[in-house]
Structures are given as C-alpha cells and as structure tokens.
Design goal:
This protein has 500 residues and is an alpha/beta fold. Helices cover 37% and strands 20% of the residues. It has a seven-stranded mixed beta sheet, sandwiched between helices. The structure holds nicotinamide-adenine-dinucleotide. One of its GO terms (molecular function) is aldehyde dehydrogenase [NAD(P)+] activity.
C-alpha cells in the first residue's frame, strides 16, 4: 500500500528546530550569546533563533576541525571504513527525508515535494556516490627509469571551509561535503543566513551515522561576519564557495590577504537557450525553458534566463511559452503540488521586482506576469514573467536576476546567435536546439559554458562536473573531478639501487 502524503501543514506546526551551532560534536550557542531571527518566506512565521556566529565561533570550529585532522580520527581510517560511515550518513538523510524537506521548504520557500525529491534525494545520492567512489580510486606510479620509483599520491588537504547559498541549501552543502569528507578532510560549513536549518540537522545526522566529532562543524551566521572570518582564517586550507560573483570576488581577496588558501568559486549565471528554426518540436523547447526558468522560483544559478529564438519560429515559441505559464503561478509551497513557491525573502522580492521595472523602462515588453502575487499570505511571491523585445544590452539580459523572469531575444543567423549567447560575463550553462546534427555540434562547441545541453535542459547527475567558464567561477563540483579540489597531489621519489 502506498504511504499517504504527509500533512505538511500539520507537520510544519509541530516543527522544533535548534538554531545553535554544531562544533566538535556539540550543539553550542554563539560565544557572545547573540542570535538572529529566522522567518519563513512562505508566510513570515518565526522559525527559530539562530546562533550568530562570528570570528570566535569560527575559530573554535576551525580548531576542532584541525584537531580532528591532526589526530587522524577520520583521515586515518581506511577508505572502506570512511565509505561505511558516509553510506550510513546518506541513509540517515533518507530516513529523515520528510523532516529535512519540510525544513528546507519553510526556510527558503521552495515547494516541499520538490525539496523532498530533488534536494534531499539529491543530497543523499551525492554523499552515497562519493562514499562509494572513495575505495575505488587508485593513485599513480610514474614511468621512471629502473633506478627510481616515483609515486604520485593524493592526500586530504586538511581543513575545508564551505560557504554555501540559500537556493539549494542541502544540495550545495552536499556537493562540498561529499568529496571533501570522502577524501578525509575536516569541514567547517557556513550555511547562508537565509537558510541555516538543514545544514545544522545534517551535521547531527552525520554524527549519528558515526562521523567522529570535529570532522564536520557548522557555524551559522552572516556572510560579512562568520563567512568572512572563515575565508580569512589562517588555518583553513581551502574554501569551497558557492554564491554570487560579487562575493566570489571577495573570496579571492580574502585568500590573498591571509594564507593563500585555495579558493574554488561556483558563481552566478545568465545561461543562454538557443532555439533554431530547424528544430521540429518547438512546443517541447518552450515547455522545457518554462520548466527550467520557473523551477525553484528562478533561483537557480543555471536557470536559462536568456532565450535566443530564430525569428521564423519566434511567434510559435512565444505562444507556447505563454500557454505554459499558468502552471507556474505561485502557490502555497506546503500544498504538496505547487510548481512555484516563495522567493527567499523580502530583499530578493525587491530585487526581482526592481529588475522587472528596469526591463519595462529600458523598452522590453511584458508578454506575461510581472507582478507580486499572494501578498495576503505575508510571503514573497512573484508571477512567472516573460519579457519580449529584449536586446542583449539591457540590464535584464546582462545581470543575474535570480527570479522567475525570462528574457527573449530574436536572431536571424547561427553566427549572430553564437555571438549573442557568448556576449555575457557569465558562462555557466547553455543549450542549443536543432535537428541538424552538424549545427548542434558546431554550436555546442562554440558556446563558452561549463555545460552545454543539446535538445534538452533538464539532465543532471552527480556523475558529471558542474561549474562555469568566465565569471561563473573556477573548479568544478560533482563527479570524480571534485576530488581535485580537496586533495593535494604529492610526488614521492624513491631511489632503487641498481645492484644488490
Ligand atoms: P551570496 O554570494 O550572497 O552568499 C553566498 C554565501 O556567502 C552565503 O553563505 C553568505 O552568507 C556568504 N557571504 C556573503 N557575503 C560574504 C562575505 N563578505 N564574506 C564571506 N561570506 C559571505 O549568494 P546567495 O545570494 O546566497 O546565492 C545566490 C548566488 O549563488 C547566485 O549568484 C547563484 O547563481 C549562485 N549559485 C551558484 C551555483 C553554482 O554552482 N555555480 C549554485 C547555486 C547558486
């Protein structure tokens, strides 16, 4: 028999959360006792008082992480033993899936059933995948003369600072935690002040799964306080950062001003979606772009926010996109069937509405949407919005909006489409739609982006790297390549005497 769908509203009323930091295996208040209030963007309800971590809290967490690393309580375990613990951690995440999905939805406004399937499911898969990988990776022996042996080995780096955003709080944390922990590092995680709840719960579940205390610490707090202290800390070996390009720039500065720690930035995007007139199923392309730009309220780094459509099929394409939008009208994220929920907070609401105003005042035309919705709830909702008559120079085509706003630009030739798509400071993802095999390959090669999709946009998996060209960042999350970020490469030369 199928399990009945949870009563998310009843569960939400019963939610109890502990907003204290988790350092060295213990829940602790901030050193100076300060907290900040965390309200839900769904309806403004108070969710918890969260510890306001600052330099002293970060320092305590880094000290505990360093001590755990130095005494080898985790790094010293055999890969197969680390695998066992991390697999148990993934199982704990799945066992707590409804609780975690609810916390995620309440904290940042996404539809709860999407949090359940994508955020919690994806996080558990990420942790399990790195757990499974770690006892299957071999090091290298160099092709040296017989008089020497050169071993090329990977070693954990030490203490990793992970600073993550609020749009996929668990998933972004897991993309850092999976490879960093599997490789034997200790981690200090600083979740966004806008979405700290699941990170704290994840750290508890990791402890229950057998991860030794001190290996995974969480310090909640603001970016300019806890985040800055972590990125400037002299005893942090690397920062895995996901967030805005503006703050990513600072990460490089913090590293330069402190210990030259490695900085891996996963930043913003303005991904291009290019539809040619030789693609037969225009409706499919339109449904896909609507599903992708409005997913997660448009708060996705890889949202295809710039569409370039060939002038011959533009009218048909736009009619299809418009007919898709009613499906994405914002609804109560706890209803269990909303396709779009609430924006993360009032600041984000103002930012998105500000971009909508800017689009209109620069001469773009609203095809649909453009307004705030569900105001009576006390939450922050915006209609799915589509602008036409956009030029690539307009603010709405150049800057990351991070909301449910699509900009559509017409083109005439392949060369023009490639030039416009690449005319961006970002390069996270792109998509090309064409039934001409050579054109699809040619354009996919020409697009300057970390991931290019052909005739689809939704494929994604932990098995492939994720990251951007240009100002969308450096380094890559996911896949075996992510181990490169959290390990040092060591060469060991051994002399072998030619004769006994
Ligand atoms: P943000 O840059 O404002 O914040 C990200 C994190 O950095 C938060 O934890 C924040 O507290 C912290 N922070 C802020 N200021 C800081 C400072 N001065 N020093 C240290 N830490 C600081 O980003 P956001 O608004 O939370 O997230 C949205 C951004 O994240 C978007 O630009 C989006 O594209 C990007 N993102 C990128 C990817 C990717 O994989 N490329 C994935 C998800 C989100």
């Amino acid at each position: 028999m199928n399990k009945p769908a949870p009563d998310w509203h009843a569960a939400a009323k019963a939610v109890k959360t502990d907003g204290r930091a988790l350092i060295n295996g213990q829940r602790v208040a901030a050193v100076n006792g300060e907290t900040f209030a965390k309200h839900s963007p769904i309806d403004g309800r108070l969710l918890a008082e969260i510890a306001r971590g600052r330099e002293a809290d970060v320092d305590a967490a880094v000290k505990s992480a360093r001590a755990a690393f130095e005494d080898s309580r985790w790094a010293g375990q055999a890969p197969a033993a680390r695998k066992k613990v991390l697999r148990a951690f993934a199982d704990k995440l799945l066992a707590a899936r409804e609780e975690l999905a609810l916390l995620e939805s309440l904290d940042m406004g996404k539809p709860v059933q999407q949090a359940l399937a994508v955020d919690v499911g994806g996080s558990a898969r990420t942790i399990a995948w790195y757990a499974e990988a770690v006892d299957k990776i071999y090091d290298e022996v160099a092709p040296t003369p017989a008089t020497a042996l050169a071993l090329i080995t990977r070693e954990p780096m030490g203490v990793i600072g992970a600073i993550v955003p609020w749009n996929y709080p668990m998933l972004m944390a897991s993309w850092k935690l999976g490879p960093a922990l599997a490789a034997g590092n200790s981690v200090v995680l600083k979740p966004s002040e806008k979405s700290p709840l699941t990170a704290l719960r994840m750290a508890e579940l990791a402890l229950e799964a057998g991860l030794p205390p001190g290996v995974f610490n969480v310090v909640p707090g603001y970016g300019h306080e806890a985040g800055e202290a972590l990125a400037l800390h002299m005893d942090v070996d690397a920062i895995g950062f996901t967030g805005s390009t503006r703050v990513g720039r600072r990460m490089l500065d913090y590293a330069g001003r402190s210990n030259l720690k490695r900085v891996y930035n996963e930043l913003g995007g303005k991904s291009a979606f290019v539809v040619f007139d030789d693609y037969a199923d225009i409706q499919r392309a339109a449904q896909t772009v609507a599903g992708s730009i409005f997913y997660n309220q448009g708060e996705s780094c890889n949202a295809p926010s710039r569409v370039f459509v060939h002038e011959k099929v533009a009218d048909e394409f736009l009619a299809c996109v418009k007919s898709e939008t009613p499906k994405y009208q914002p609804q109560d994220p706890l209803s269990g069937h909303a396709e779009m929920g609430a924006l993360v907070d009032e600041g984000q609401l103002k930012t998105v509405l500000g971009y909508i105003d800017a689009g209109a005042s620069e001469g773009a035309k609203l095809l649909t949407g453009g307004k705030r919705a569900l105001t009576e709830t006390g939450g922050y909702y915006v209609e799915p919005t589509v602008f036409i008559d956009v030029t690539n120079q307009m603010k709405i085509a150049r800057e990351e909006i991070f909301g449910p706003v699509l900009s559509v630009i017409r083109f005439k030739t392949e060369e023009e489409a490639i030039r416009l798509a690449n005319d961006s400071s970002y390069g996270l993802q792109a998509s090309v739609w064409s039934d001409n095999l050579s054109r699809a390959h040619r354009v996919a090669r020409a697009l300057r982006a970390g991931t290019v999709h052909v005739n689809q946009y939704d494929e994604d998996d932990i098995t492939v790297p994720f990251g951007g060209y240009k100002q969308s960042g450096n380094g890559r999350d996911k896949s075996l390549h992510a181990f490169d970020k959290y390990t040092e490469l060591k060469t060991t030369w051994i002399r072998i005497d030619a004769h006994p």
